[in-house]
Amino acid sequence: MPRLRFAWLVLLPMLALAAAPARAWDHRGHQAIGSIADRLIAGTPAAARVRELLAGDLQTASVWADCARAVAATPDGWRYANAGSQAACAPFETADGRSGLVDFVARNERHRSWHYTDISIAQPRYDAALPGARPADLVQAIGAALAVLQGGRSPPPFDIAGAREALRLLAHFVGDLHQPLHVGSIYLGDAGQPIDPTTAQQAAAQANAGGNLITLDGRNLHATWDDTPDALSSALASSAGLARARQVPPTAGPLDRWPAAWADDTLAAARQAFDGLQFEPRAGAGWPARADETGYRQRREALQQAQLVKAGARLAQVLAALWP
Ligand SMILES: [Zn+2]
User: Fold this and answer.
1) How far is the CA of 66 from the centre of ligand 1 (A)?
2) CA of 24 to the centre of ligand 1 (A)
3) Which terminal CB of the chain, N or C, has fewer other CB atoms within 10 Å?
């Protein structure tokens, strides 16, 4: 399902025609991140606490927040509508698992909007007051999960029920926070020129839904960044991937600043992600773009891999900080 926000509902029929599925790293990408973190914390108190809370590992839990997208409103209430269609969601399709997903969505109907923020790449850093940031955006969602994991309550509008749900969300959202197009946005004027919106209204009018409304050589740009090729995820599952993750520097400063600090770092990655693209004037719902295809793909895959490694390493860092 494409990344949605309420104001885009009118565009859905067009998106459905133009866009491949896009869900902020595909399941393989999230599982690769979870697997790196599982291996980095192996044998530590954090690993014991993770096992106790999840009765499983981070690799499996990392996709739970995307599986929740399959909970749909029906005349009889919320229903999990996806059984059997996604192998990665199968561990959550027991009766208990399905009711956990349904219960989460019933408490948090707007959960889809937690998976991203839309900070202009013209800005130097994430700030909750910027156009494109929201009280329930990705950075704030990670903060809410951390509040619960530290023994507190989730601040509204989040309603996170307990440490297991919070850890499932954290394992997913630290991944999303490292997908460049889930953090940084190139806002475009109608002539295809980059702009830096000064108001939330201007940001909404010129938004491209994290690249979902940009087509690069006919493909949804957001989807090309979510997609992690087999070769890439299997490289991360190897000992070489683990060795790279061990080289990611520790995050400085107090824990509650980490989500914003990581967002700043991903904003820099997003500037690279949009570098080398030429945009044409707005046509219908979106903007066509062009690039040197081979060069852009090579740079994209290198940056995707670096970001997946960082996400796995930082997920491990935050768990080690929570449960030293
Ligand atoms: Zn996501």
Assistant:
1) 6
2) 5
3) C
CATH number of the domain where residue 144 is located = 1.10.575.10
Domain count, the chain: 1
CA of residue 161 to ligand 1 center, whole Å: 19
Q: Tokens at residue 267, please?
A: 């904003």
- How far, in Å, CA of 264 to CA of 266, rounded? 5
- Does residue 114 lie within any of the structural domains? yes
Instruction: Say how many Å lie between the CA of residue 260 and the centre of ligand 1.
Output: 17
Residue 289 CA to residue 296 CA, distance in Å, equals: 12
Residue 13 domain-assigned (yes or no): no
Per-residue pLDDT tens for 253-286? Answer: 999 999 999 999 999 999 999 999 999 999 988 9
Backbone angles phi, psi at 19, to 5 degrees: -115, 140
Residue 269 domain boundaries? 24-322
62 CA distance to ligand 1 middle (Å): 9
Query: For the segment 113-122, what is each residue's pLDDT rounded down to a tens digit?
Result: 999 999 999 9
- Residue 94 forms part of a structural domain: yes
Distance 173 CA to ligand 1 centre (A): 6
Q: Distance from the CA of 191 to the center of ligand 1, in angstroms?
A: 31
How far the first Cα of the chain sits from its last, in Å, is: 38
Q: What is the pTM of this model?
A: 0.92
Assigned domain for 18 exists: no
